[in-house]
Amino acid sequence: MTxxxxxxxxxxxxxxxxxxxxxxxxxxxxxxxxxxxxRRIWRRMFRALFDAHGLELGPAGAKLLTRQPSRLRGxxxxxxxxxxRRLLRKVAxxxxxxxxxxxxxxxxxxxxxMAHVLQDSQKIAGPGRxxxxxxxxxxxxKAMLRTYEEVDPAPLRRALVGSFHGARxxxxxxxxxxxxxxxxxxxxxxQHGDDVDALSTRMRDAAMDEWQYLEKLEQRFRHNxxxxxxxxxxxxxxxxxxxx
Length: 244
Description:
Radius of gyration: 17 Å
Number of helices: 12
Order of helices and strands: EHHHHHHHHHHHHE
Helix content: 55-70%
Number of strands: 2
Strand content: under 5%
Shape: globular
Largest sheet: 2 strands, antiparallel
Strand order of the largest sheet: 1-2
Structural class: mainly alpha
């Protein structure tokens, strides 16, 4: 199977696990609570990715990276209207699934690009600077937001919508995710219950099937960071990322 970039299996699992948990939050029947939990999961994903690369991202750095919401085409409006939709109590199941996928795709994009940049963290930070330096984090976030204005995430969104349609996860697991976040327990890669772990795996597999989109996303991101385009990023591997 052809896979994108050089993101490690561990990083891909971290991204998928957090995106899956955040994507379940629209199922929480308490208005506005889901937004708070999404942001907490979002920040924890960044800290987990830094930790996976031997770096420590403090609370201030995580807040800096999540200060501005991701502006993905077609998803930003949906996420912005989330509180009103919650008050309307899920007019339709299809709408609820779209909300889940829109949140998941936004978190997935942020995690995937951060995992990509951490592979070249010292090159991006520059001599004598740490990747956790606020100026470096601001530069990374600015490049992320610009990249989102230049790409159409429809391929990945469709893939993740399919993942949620195939999942058997409801409000009970969404509430369990809330409890973990509020208790500030670490979100392990695969310790959320069989249904949620299955959703995370399904999302990773679906994302890997869209490797051409992910490759384009990474290249635009590198361009916006001022890094040279990589050659030969795609390589043959027997499901190295999606099944590892």
